[in-house]
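sanity check this fold:
=====
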Amino acid sequence: MTTELNFLEKIKRTQYNRTDPDASVMTKPAHNLMAYNSQICVDAKFKFIVATDVTSQGTDKQELHHMAMQTKEVITNPDLVVLADKGYYSATEIKKCVDDGIRTLVPYAQTGQQQKNAGKFTKDKFVYNTEKDNNQEIPKSISSNVRNGRLMFIYRPKISTCTACPIKDKCLGKTTRYKQIQRWAEQELLDKYYQDLETPESKALMKKRGSIVEHPFGTIKRSLGWDHFLVRSKKKVAGENALIMFTYNFKRLLNLIGIALFKKLMIAIKDGDLSKIREEIALYIASFRLKMAIFLLNIFMVQFSKKFA
């Protein structure tokens, strides 16, 4: 054990897999295992995977901007909106996306619940005053710090002010002498982001996220029977990941347009003229959806009539 710990200290890492040095521990509700984190971005309309990558990071916090940029290169729609779950929430990543003109909708994790349960004031109770540059009359300190790559301004009052405050028990711990609040230098950007999340349009879009991105993973695991990587090293795993995502897209395309139309598409690609086939594919998919809707409606009517016969 001592030898292993000395080895980790020497290479300056907290974990190391001798079988696959690129892999790292992934924490799941049911188990922990050495693995890779597969990332995908999925088109909402046809459920195609438009971007994919693998990472050995155990969390998704650093992946939002990277995957959003890949998606932007493929989808040239100026109204592109990237949806992600709260595991992707990172103020730094969100700012990168905003700077590159990408609209994202990522719900943020609520914090301060423990303080709230204890009857203490949470951070949101201290409203920032733009004109005075203070938080609920708590002045800005001359000091600041950098946390996770973000410049944070510190706001704190004099100790005497907190000592004389009649409701300090709602604000401070038993051994805390004064209140201190940190505010990101780019907090105004986040405030606007939070406002966007609360609009009816944004809430409606976020509700659709699970049905969009989980569809390919379900198909890959259940239909294609693939649930783990068969190779080692990040380079090889990235290749295997790309192949399985390509396989899914290929299968998805055949399901949407059929073999006959697919052959026409290949000929059109070879000839370098997609104008006619694009229109034919659009008409085929529209008519297919109409037929499916009628088919499902007929099934429903039959079942409904039997139930009340």
